Amino acid sequence: MLATIIGLYTFYIVTRLYVSVMQIGYINQVKRKGAVLLGEREYLDAANYAVAKEKLSMAEAMVEYALFFVWMGGMLAWFDESLMSQNPLLHTLYAVLGLIFINSIVMLPFGWIAKFKIDAQYGFNRSTIAQFIKDTLIGTLLTIVIGGLIVWGVAAIINASELWWLWSFCFIFGVVVALNMFFPTIRALFFDKVTPLDNPQLQEQIASLMAKTGFVSSGVFVSDASKRDARLNAYFGGLGKAKRVVLFDTLLQKLTPQELIAVLGHELGHFAHGDLYKNIAMVGVMLFGMFAAFGNLPQSLYSEIGVPASPHIMMMLFILLLPMVSFFMMPLMGLISRHNEYEADRTGAELGGAEHLVSALTKLVSENKSFPLSHPVYRFFHTTHPPVIERLRVLGSDVAADVTEGFTDPCPVL
Questions:
Q1: Hey, what long-range contacts does 47-51 have (CB within 8 A, 24 or more apart)?
Q2: 322-344 pLDDT, tens per residue?
Q3: Cα–Cα distance between 20 and 377 in angstroms, integer?
Q4: Is 123 exposed, middle or buried (0-12, 13-18, 19+ CB in 10 A)?
Q5: What are phi and psi of 79, to 5 degrees?
Q6: Out of 16, 351, 352, 360, which residue is the most buried by the measure of CB atoms under 10 Å away?
């Protein structure tokens, strides 16, 4: 059984690296041809930015693979034996949170490189090292508190019922729903300063827009996201009465009011079609499948690893294998998500005008340095949004570009 899991994980890493190689090679081919949507300089910058991020992702994948082998090759058993605690609950907390902490420390340099090297080189990073350290410490503290409560809950369920995997799924799914409900509040409390929108005319337009789709919000807020990043974004967060509209200050600076209304119309389209609930349901299906599988792992696996089939070992294996399962679930979730994006675009065009949504999407591509083309195998595994060129065409824009160009060319990585 251990050989099977290692083989599957190896297949996952090889597939992930293959997808990145194809994407890098494809971008390096098409970036030498005519620019699409962007000016020549912007087009090259977006291409080089995408390649740099993909190369970093490949390095992350190889380190992740090495970590997996270290844990499965003996560190899991050694770590379990090294934790000197007579209290089973404390032992479980130390073991699971310890694994998360060690993996986070090992992978932390990649986050630093992404922000202070790659993002800084392309003009996105506005965060300081002090801010980065602060965010990391706050994130770690939240992981300890929230993660500790989740670990305690799952451990209690495993010890209480033979059908622990089913009740654990129900518990974790409830946590997912709660986190979605309170995400805007948590983010505002610990990371971003969020203030009410101070623009009566725009606020009135947004309120009118929300009324058309029946969206009831606790308010329209502006996030000071520019202190960390120059990218443009906005989100509708929360569930029930906790819903709120949050606009990044960068978005207000770069888009016209008409373009902003069109973008918000797109986001309201997701609400009108129940996409948030669909996404939560998809996560629920994925979690159910994972818990069902982990609830029926053979005893021989634990024997091969040299560990007992205890609650904390089950949770540690769950965490170690989650990236692999998520990666292979992503194509299905991406397929559904891309369909939802087209539907949301249609609503955005109806509420805010197709021409304004086209203009806003074009600006977002430019400001966020989003390379407008990608290899089909990369889209299959990674993208939750359709190619922007296809979205613009559906909205009635005449975009002169062949999205299949370069697929059959040689794909040099360098």
A1: 47/371, 48/122, 49/118, 49/122, 49/369, 49/371, 50/23, 50/371, 51/24, 51/27
A2: 899 889 888 988 888 899 999 99
A3: 9
A4: exposed
A5: -65, -40
A6: 360
